[in-house]
Amino acid sequence: EPEVTQTPSHQVTQMGQEVILRCVPISNHLYFYWYRQILGQKVEFLVSFYNNEISEKSEIFDDQFSVERPDGSNFTLKIRSTKLEDSAMYFCASSRTGSGNTIYFGEGSWLTVV
Amino acid sequence: AQKVTQAQTEISVVEKEDVTLDCVYETRDTTYYLFWYKQPPSGELVFLIRRNSFDEQNEISGRYSWNFQKSTSSFNFTITASQVVDSAVYFCALSGGGADGLTFGKGTHLIIQP
After folding, report:
1. Which A positions 54-83 lie with beta carbon below 8 A of chain B?
2. Which tens digits make up the pLDDT trace of A23-32?
């Protein structure tokens, strides 16, 4: 069964460093997403991406975040200058279409900022 | 603005009992989509079900069933004859469609005791 894959599974970084989280969405999916989950809290939407541009973004997705689809398979989330409060699980997700189509999640990348 | 409320923070039952997880949502959209996801201790988000706002038929899948009632803005999830493997955090989520991200509830931590 096709799945969303994410790397790394866990990353520890120093405050102020740049981090790139990588994702390979399901191959025939057109919409891509990043979500985050701070430990013990609910899952929060960050950004959606379609046709090589951002479609929607939340208030959390400020200037320190960026997304990119550098090639035909990868989808990345960059955090420019990490803060302690960026420590969270980051989930990549994809869906075949928008319009409420089922969104499938990867296993997550756990980011710890120290 | 969309909102999902899962009032039950934690539920603990003994194996083989039936358990219902409540979900109440708020949206101004006339077309919307409701989801349930399971997050086991390993952390991934597993898709369980998707419902659109025009389909109020209840659904049963094995031991799982869902009751969607537009009149009360609720989308409740029942597990029949619970098993220890059902222990997880369960999230209800709402989407307005398009490239909208999912709005998640805070989750219900379900503990099934042997």
Report:
1. 55-56, 58
2. 999 999 999 9
